[in-house]
Amino acid sequence: MAEDDDDIILADLDDDELVQQMFDDLYDGLREEIEESVQILLARGWAPYKILTEALVGGMTIVGADFRDGILFVPEVLLAANAMKGGMQILKPLLAETGAPRMGSMVIGTVKGDIHDIGKNLVSMMMEGAGFEVVDLGINNPVENYLEALDEHKPDILGMSALLTTTMPYMKVVIDTLIEQGRRDDYIVLVGGAPLNEEFGKAIGADAYCRDAAVAVETAKAYVARKHNAMAAG
Amino acid sequence: MSGISDSDLTEMGLPPGTDKGRVLVIACGALAREILDLRAANGWDHLHLACLPAILHNTPDKITDAVRAAVDKHRGSFDSIFVAYADCGTGGALQRACDEMGVEMIQGPHCYSFFQGNQDFAAKSEDEITAFYLTDFLVRQFDAFVTKPLGLDRHPELRDMYFGNYTKLVYQAQTDDPALTEKARACADFLGLDFERRFTGYGDLAEALERAAKGEAAPRR
């Protein structure tokens, strides 16, 4: 986006200009520049949560929208995510110290037989950026892994990901096990992955199919709010 | 098959011959050479071939509509049509479409499976989830299918984000071609993966095509 990046002294920009520049740098996948900008904003007294939401998540929202609209493609999104990750690594230890708002919690993992994690990692990062506590189980998870993590962390949300049409049916195995154990309704179950669609999500008994990371965050927020409202009413 | 380039098969596919024929095979462009070779070897002169662009492999959600359109376009000109695709990431959509249209397709999840033999592939699949497969065609067209779409030509630093969970590249060889084997080995090196060459020949494709050539129905899943 910005053609004269080399000429820009980040520290010379005022706050608004710097946030705009961070949007550009995220879009261009410039990790070092993002890390430097985060440090500058911290030094100026910005709260870590404010940097996260206004600069990083704000920038990634633009990237996500352009990906959805076919303007950006997977390589560019990965570069942007890598840049955001650089900023997140600085902010993450500070967020706990500064009492950032907590939206809810999620256990997420790629299902058994599947080693693909690009989409799942994006969801994890964006969920963390939105204030969710995320326990990422990684790849190739049998049902036992999910159950153990649900027992241990008692999350609001269970997220499952698959890239292959041969592995996505395993999501139903996990959901059916939860039903058998009488605990399906204890969790909001969100599913995602390239070969999935809304129809599949409904068919296997998930609460929602999320077509990308941004949708996952919005869906998670809506379901958690609904769950909390129901608990308050009950 | 002379005069037809792999890059044309990747981007444009192959239109059918204009002769009135009995059987039309509508195939993925990645199978064109193998199907034409089987036709020549078996003398299936009544079998005609039309290929869709092989690059649809990278966007499987577009395969079913493309196959449906091709069947609609050609069905009036042939006695029978056979779809030389497996599920290929369509999540059962292609099978449902073929059932609706009354045409047969190849059994199995994808070409890696039917080239190796569906039974053998399924038996080994749990032990090979970290394998990345290439066929003869995909080795020849590695840049078009892997390097460029994944942006590895522009951003080689993304390699491990894509392939970090894979451990080996399995080259499923349809032919004995030392030069292609070396290219496949170079692909493995490029991706940072171990290399294994596995000769498959045409696997279940040969049997499926024979049934199509003889006008026999393939077994349903």
TrEMBL record, chain A:
InterPro entries for the chain: Cbl-bd_cap (IPR003759), Cobalamin-bd (IPR006158), Cobalamin-bd_sf (IPR036724), Met_Synthase/Corrinoid (IPR050554), Meth_synthase_dom (IPR036594)
Entry similarity comment: Belongs to the methylamine corrinoid protein family.
Gene Ontology cellular component list: cytosol
Molecular functions per Gene Ontology: cobalamin binding; metal ion binding; methionine synthase activity
Domain B12-binding per the UniProt entry, residue ranges: 103-234
Higher taxonomy: Bacteria, Pseudomonadati, Pseudomonadota, Alphaproteobacteria, Rhodobacterales
Gene3D superfamilies the record matches: Cobalamin-binding domain, Methionine synthase domain
Protein name: 5-methyltetrahydrofolate--homocysteine methyltransferase
Automatic annotation (TrEMBL), chain B:
Record-linked InterPro entries: DUF1638
Domain of life: Bacteria
Domain DUF1638: 51-208
Pfam families documented for this protein: DUF1638 (PF07796)
Name of the featured protein: DUF1638 domain-containing protein
Species of provenance: Salinihabitans flavidus
Lineage: Bacteria, Pseudomonadati, Pseudomonadota, Alphaproteobacteria, Rhodobacterales
